[in-house]
Amino acid sequence: MLVERIMTSPCTTINEERTIDEAIRLMREEDIRHLPVVDDLLRVKGIITDRDVNLALPSILGETEVKLDAPVADIMNRDVMTCHPLDFVEDIAIDFHELSIGSIPVVKKGRCIGIVTQKDMLNTFLELTGVMTPGSAVEVAVPDVPGIMHEVTKVFYTHHTSIESILVYRDKENPGQKLVLIRMQSMNPHPIIDALNEAGFSIRTPLGMGL
Predict the structure, then answer these.
(1) What number of CA atoms fall less than 13 Å from residue 128's CA on the CB side?
(2) Cβ count within 10 A of residue 137
(3) 95-143 pLDDT, tens per residue?
(4) pTM of structure
(5) Given this model, what pLDDT does residue 124 score?
(6) How far apart are CA 126 and CA 190, in angstroms?
(7) DSSP state letters, 60-89
(8) What is the rounded average pLDDT for all residues in the chain?
(9) Where are the beta strands (DSSP E) in the chain?
(10) Which are the contacts of 89, defined by CB distance < 8 A and separation ≥ 6?
(11) I need a labelling partner for 82 at 20 to 30 A (CA). Which of 44, 68, 151, 201 fits?
């Protein structure tokens, strides 16, 4: 999935010469927590968050007198991670994780055209897992060999059951094995579970694990 599929575009920005007071009011009006700071050509110069405003004002402008008429450039974070609309979502997910950031402005041809936030990433995860669509899920343990997914999905094809999503990850306890989490468009997973068992696959479900 590409960044352009999940980004908010156009996004709210603020010019670097605007005041902190204007930034606070803009964030409140738009109900946003992350605000890219740009110049007249929409080039990203920094970013501020509601947390930056709360934490930075006392330390930078003095605890006794908060100068809300100071420019946002005084409190913005200048070291900004950006991405391109054609970047892969999973690639920028690493940036979110490793840098512990809450948002990433999206830049195309030097101009800020959008933003991706942690909420956007969570919504994407929910969409990819299919949990927002009514259905049920099973986890199948499979050997890590070429063609194994064909054998698994063939069971669903035979039983005319549509698959909503498939997630594959390594079984840490069993080297050479992978776990396949399959969410199906059926509220009754038992026929599929029985068929997968008959095909020789090991199935994990909350009921089967005594949960």
Answers:
(1) 14
(2) 18
(3) 999 999 999 999 999 999 999 999 999 999 988 888 888 999 999 999 9
(4) 0.78
(5) 92
(6) 24
(7) HH-SS---TTSBGGGT-B-----B-TTSBH
(8) 89
(9) 14-15, 34-38, 44-49, 103-108, 111-117, 136-143, 163-170, 177-184, 202-204
(10) 1, 2, 3, 5, 6, 121, 124
(11) 68
How many CA atoms are closer than 13 Å to the CA of 110, on its beta-carbon side?
4
Pairing of strands 14-15, 136-143: unpaired
Structural tokens at position 126: 């929910």
Q: Which two tokens stand for residue 67?
A: 């100068």
Q: Which residues, including other chains, have CB under 8 Å from residue 1's CB and lie 6 or more apart?
A: 88, 89, 90, 124, 128
Q: How far apart are CA 112 and CA 100, in angstroms?
A: 21
pLDDT in tens, 79-105: 999 999 999 999 999 999 999 999 999
Dist CA 1 CA 99 (whole Å)? 21
